[in-house]
Amino acid sequence: MRKQTKGRQRQEKAQRYVTGTVDMKASGAAFIISPGLTKDIYIPRDRTNRALNGDIVKVAIKHSRHLDRPEGEVVEIITRGKTTYSGTLQLSNGHAFVVPDNSKVPVDIYVPLTKINGAKDGQKVRVEITHWEKSDKNPTGAILEVLGQPGEHTAEMNSIIEEYGLPLEFPKEVKRAVENLRIKISDEELAKRRDFRQITTFTIDPADAKDFDDALSIKKLDNGNWEVGVHIADVSHYVQPGSPIDVEATKRATSVYLVDRVIPMLPEALSNEACSLNPHEDKLTFSAVFELNDKAEIQHEWFGRTVINSTHRFNYEEVQEILEGKEDRLSSEVHTLNKLAKTLRARRMKEGSIAFEKTEVRFILDAKGNPTGVKFMEANDSHRLIEDFMLLANRKVAELVGKPKKDEQHSHDDKKKRNVFVYRVHDVPDTEKIQKFVEFLRKSGIKSSFDKSSNIANSMNELLGDAKEKPYENILNLLAIRTMAKAIYTTKNIGHYGLGFEYYTHFTSPIRRYPDLMVHRLLQEFLTTGKTTADRHELEEQCKYCSKLERTAEEAERSSVKYKQVQFMQTHAAEVFEGLISGVTEYGFFVELKANKCEGFVRGRDLQDDFYYYDEQNYCLKGKRTGKRFQLGQDVTVKVKKTDLIKKFIDFELA
């Protein structure tokens, strides 16, 4: 007996415990993501022990059957990631269950008939999990709200908003705080600022934009150089730390752009009015001002609070027309800025920036929110003009606050002396991902110098340059981006690999990104005192939260686009489309349509001419008898077989 006890104690002692976040799969299995581990822990579906996606859990790491990954079991749920979900109510034989919309929730939620809140069978609802006993197969919940009928625009968009925990409106105390804000600019405030109101200044934004958070000014100096001002809405003047507006902005962290609406970080009275750099209105700004010679070399730089009055509001199309020859009263200024931007860009590329470009798709919606068409948003010189000056401002602000001065560079206490700051960092690519990308290129017959070059950035630019105007350009850009690490916010600077910058931050969009507002406050403190005094740990936690909310916003935006894709393709069910294979799995392959960039799936079981198996070595489906292949980037002709608005899925079949 004593031997058994000692053996058990040794076993428990040897067992490792880890805390991490659940990344649930549709199968019911999960991976645990923990910052201290190089590989995620795999949890079989019978060992998740009532954990759900996003939960913080304690995991016991067990002996793994797979050498390439650790395996474990959830032993404790520390914090639930969320307790409310959207889904469809199913009533049958006196029982009620809600089937969650999110495929990462692999269980239905049982709802007592006394808690269905008037909902009817088949309706979309918002449900809250109230408890989940160990003895129960399903969690128990209560319906909070009826969202509408599945497939209806309003119901589906509200479902996405609920699924990603997005706020529907601002709290009362925030609305009251906005009403009490002093919007009018006082003479006292103007006297504190550098005045740019007499200098030519304009904004360039999408045609449908309602908030303008950046403007450019340009002035020819007596010495022949150019003074270019990058002027950013001074949100920090209106939003004070700890105020109700600030607390709400901290929670939201970012504006979210769904296909039919914007869920703003700041109330509209600020985002669209007081802070928005509307033309012919005095506006408070925070500016980065550069004296540039004709080679776009910085001769002098200045940072500080300013006041501007925008001369004109351009959209990208109007600026592009000017760059292509159309006459305008601001033609000279636009052409000069474009020439300087092109020089900045060429230098940036030479120094290691990677030129990723992906076509963005926007749906044209009717009054009821139904998609009637698509338009492509492709980056041109008007977009790049703005981009390069914003990158310059972001980079130079980060260098100003973060880069050690010459007298500090050889100090042993260098790290202690450095200012606490918010950086936008991008890590070096994972070697394994790059190797897989190189293998894909080789097996797809795409010529590349990747395997012969140690300079990945140069090889990537060469590859993407060669792909321009080719059918697979968009997919190649997408795959190249997937090989890269994700950019995040942090106080620990490691540089931005994708841009090739040693120091980089986000300074240029405080109306829609909370990190930019944090940067404005830190920058002002540095300009006033020569240092920043923020608590590094607190700031790092805020950075992590903002990075997390940024990913949530991206997922919600993709989900709304996917819903509109399915809705759009429902009306084109009889048509035949040309497409490209954009992804291959063991069950089939994804196809992106050339005409509208909508993506659907061709199931392997629907390929009737042969039995196809997944050839992992060559990233393709291969016919056992014929040897026929379906691989990434390949042209195919398809038609719609089935659409599912609830699961946001399109099934194609070969035409």
Give the oligomeric state: single chain
- Beta percentage is 25-35%
How confident is the prediction overall: mean pLDDT?
90
Helix content: 25-40%
Rounded to the nearest angstrom, the radius of gyration is 27 Å
Largest sheet: 7 strands, mixed
Number of strands: 31
Attribute tags:
655 residues, alpha+beta, OB fold (Dihydrolipoamide Acetyltransferase, E2P), 5-stranded antiparallel sheet, 16 helices
In short:
By secondary structure, the protein is of the alpha+beta class. Among the domains are: 2-79, Nucleic acid-binding proteins (OB fold (Dihydrolipoamide Acetyltransferase, E2P), Beta Barrel), CATH 2.40.50.140; 84-150, OB fold (Dihydrolipoamide Acetyltransferase, E2P); 172-351 and 358-401, no CATH class; 572-654, OB fold (Dihydrolipoamide Acetyltransferase, E2P), CATH 2.40.50.
Describe the 3D structure.
The protein is an alpha+beta fold. The chain has a seven-stranded mixed beta sheet. Strands 3-2-1-4-5 form a five-stranded antiparallel beta sheet. Strand 1 (16-24) and strand 2 (30-33) form a beta hairpin. Helix 2 packs antiparallel against helix 16 (536-570) and helix 9 (331-350) crosses helix 10 (381-402).
Layout of SSEs?
Layout: H1 2-14, E1 16-24, E2 30-33, E3 41-43, E4 56-62, E5 71-79, E6 84-92, E7 95-100, E8 109-110, E9 124-131, E10 140-148, H2 153-163, H3 172-179, H4 187-191, E11 194-195, E12 201-205, E13 214-220, E14 226-233, H5 235-238, H6 244-252, E15 256-258, E16 261-263, H7 268-274, E17 282-292, E18 298-309, E19 312-315, H8 316-323, H9 331-350, E20 360-365, E21 371-377, H10 381-402, H11 414-417, E22 423-425, H12 431-444, H13 456-467, H14 473-483, E23 488-490, H15 514-529, H16 536-570, E24 576-585, E25 588-593, E26 599-603, E27 612-615, E28 620-623, E29 629-631, E30 635-644, E31 649-654
Parallel strand pairs: 11-18, 12-19, 26-31
Antiparallel strand pairs: 1-2, 1-4, 2-3, 4-5, 6-7, 6-9, 7-8, 9-10, 12-13, 13-14, 14-17, 15-16, 17-18, 20-21, 22-23, 24-25, 24-30, 25-26, 27-28, 28-29, 30-31
Helix pairs in contact: 2-16, 9-10
